[in-house]
Structures are given as C-alpha cells and as structure tokens.
Amino acid sequence: MCLGVPGKIVEIYQADGLRMGRVDFGGVQREACLEYVPEAQLGDYTVIHVGFAISRLSEEEALTSLEILREIVNLEEETRTDVRGGELA
Amino acid sequence: MKYVSEFRDPVLVERGLEGIRRTITRPWVLMEICGGQTHAIVRSGLDQLLPPEIELVHGPGCPVCVTPLEQIDKALAIASRPEVIFTSYGDMLRVPGSGKDLFGVRAAGGDVRVVYSPLDAVRLAEDHPDRQVVFFAIGFETTAPANAMSVLQAHAKGLKNFSVLVSHVRVPPAIRAILGSPTNRVQGFLAAGHVCAVMGYWEYLSIAESFRTPVVVTGFEPLDIVQGILATVRQLEKGRHFAENAYSRVVTEEGNRPAQGIIQRVFKEIDRKWRGIGTIPMSGWGLADEFEAFDAERRFQVEDIAPNESPLCIAGQILQGMKRPHDCSAFGGACTPEHPLGATMVSSEGACAAYYRYGQ
Question: What is the ipTM of this complex?
C-alpha cells in the first residue's frame, strides 16, 4: 500500500471538479488524481498511491543523488589509493 | 523504467555496499519502519549482502497488519449486511478477523468489492443510490490523502449512501513508542519514504534530537535502501543523530502541503489501537466532527466486538522488531499465506509474508 512507482503524466483533465490525469508506468496507463500535485505538468513524473499522485519527482535531485553516490565511492577509492601509494613510497 | 532502473543498478548498489563496509566498525541495530521496504530488502537479497555488523529489524509499517482486529470484525459485520456494498483495498480481504475474513463474507453472499482508488468507491455510491457503499479507509499517511478526498467528494456530491470505516495510523507516534520502550534495541531508523512524501520529515527532527537516534528518510529501490543505510551508519559511527533525507527526488522537508491540508480538514488525531501492539496515544486519525455523518461505525451502530486472536501468532512482537518470523512456531506450518493466522503473513507488506515468499 505504501509502494508507489513513478509514472509519467501523459494527459491532464478535469473530472468531477478534480484535477485528474493519465499516468504511464512503462507502457501501462492508469487514471490518477492530480489534485495534490498542482505544480505537475505533462511529461512530469509523479509517485502514485492508491490512484493519487502524492509527489512530483525532482529530476535534478534524482541525478544529484546518483552522482553523489558515484563521487563518494570514487573519492574513497582515490583516498585509499593515495594512502597505499604513500605506504609504498 | 525511468527513475526505477537507475536505482536498481547492481554496480552502484555494490559501490554503496562497499561504502557501508568501509564505514562500519561495530554492530548497529537499524529498523526499517515500512513493510514495503522489508519486502524490497528481502526480495533483492540486500539483507544477505550487508555486512554482518548490521542487524535490520522490521518495523510496524504494514497497514493491514496493524489494523486492529476489532475494526476488521466491524468490517465483517458491516459487509455482511444485505444493503451494503463493502469496498476495500485488495490487501485487506484475506486478513483474518476473529471468525473469518472479507473473502469469507463474500463467499457467504456479501457484496465485497476491491477498489484501486477510494474515488472508485464514491463512483459506486453514485451508481447505486439504492445501496449503502462503505469504504474501509485504512492505512498510514500514504493513503490518507486519497481516503480524505473520497469523503470530501461524497460531501460535495451530497451522497447519503457513502460512508467510511476509518482505521488510520501515523508513523511518528509509533517511532516514539518504539524508542521510548524500555526493551528498545533500535539505534537508527530508516523512515518510510512515501509517508514522508506526504507529511515531510519535519516531525522527525525533534524525534532524532530527543531520542538521540538518527532518522533517515529512505526510498524503496535497492540503491535507495543502501543509501539510507549508509547515511544512518555514517551518523552512528560519528556519534551524530539528526533527521536526514536520502530520498530527495521524492521527499521534501515540508512534504505535500495540499495533501496535509485536506488530511487536517477531514481527519482529527485520536488514540488508536495497533493490532498486536496495543493502544498508542494520538497515533491515529478518525473523522473530524464536521464529517461524522460519513462515519460507518455511527451509521451502522456496530458495537465493539470482543475479538478473538490466534494464541499462536506472535505478529505483535514481530511488528515491534522484538522477534523475527522464524521465531514463530507456526511460521510456514500452521501459518502460511494461504491459511494465515496473523496479518503479517497476508500482506504484501508483512514481514512473515516476505520471509515466506522469498524463502528466507
């Protein structure tokens, strides 16, 4: 119930006074209520729970967190190499 | 899939694991609150790949597991009424009540239907003005925005034949209860990413501070979980304790304000009993006074039914991280997903179901 995969908003419309949309999950499309993500636009990714978008995904943050992990481990590897280098010298 | 496959990249996961191995110097006990994360951890085999110093205990974040037996018995009583169409998230149908489950009610002729969204239940009420449509509004903060909106929609449409049986629970009071227990062993928390997507993590700032325990907002893909664990271990090893966000592509500190606003309008904080755990003060939401006309318990006058829990089931201790599924004498024998004694064996978020399904 708390799992939610990000889907891409492919259509936005009003129904019954609510902001609704169609969201594409890798080819499978479902209707979702977009009332809680008023800032979300066509093409944005959102996390959907029980038919409601609860968060607009930040592409910038997604790339940053991937980058941070790559860098952290690289840094640690470099540091270790330096230490080893120092010992050898 | 975009934003999914990158966070399952085995090379990066291994790098993150290596980061944890290099950081850790002694044993630590971490709890992942969310049952969805428990499943992700066991399914991906992360629990086998983490260094032995890390003990992951599984938390109470399984909504159908903690829905109290009394509420399920009320659901069974309401769903058995001939005028009622009883609607629920699918997970709830096989959760055993005192006598039977909702599938049993359906087999006996009750009109029990699974809905994907609570708005589907509102539509059913519109389509069947001669019937009473009841929605079982359970869950944590993730389902609350949807459940609250169904009440608002029914209110706006003036529907007299729609009501909700509410059994909502909230994560922060549960974390406080776990950390405040004299038997607590948990030294760091992975906070549930999607709960925080709705509520933000500002409530965890004071929890981390007052209990001197790291709380790290964590997502659901293997890389998210590795990042969450790495951040927690870093804090622990440095003797630090603060609320940190390791799921920033989805979660902000303030959370989803429109959703919080609707939740505050439709619900009010109340004491809530958690199945297997007991009552946690102000740990749940019930309908606000303005919307009490939509309260199924009032509409159908269901009394508190004396519940009858299986004496073998140790789900309560499992939900608090005190025991593991294998510690249960019934696990895999008297209790299986086909014949569950407790809700933790039923749910796609229950720890026992995860261990059973992935052969741990």
Answer: 0.91
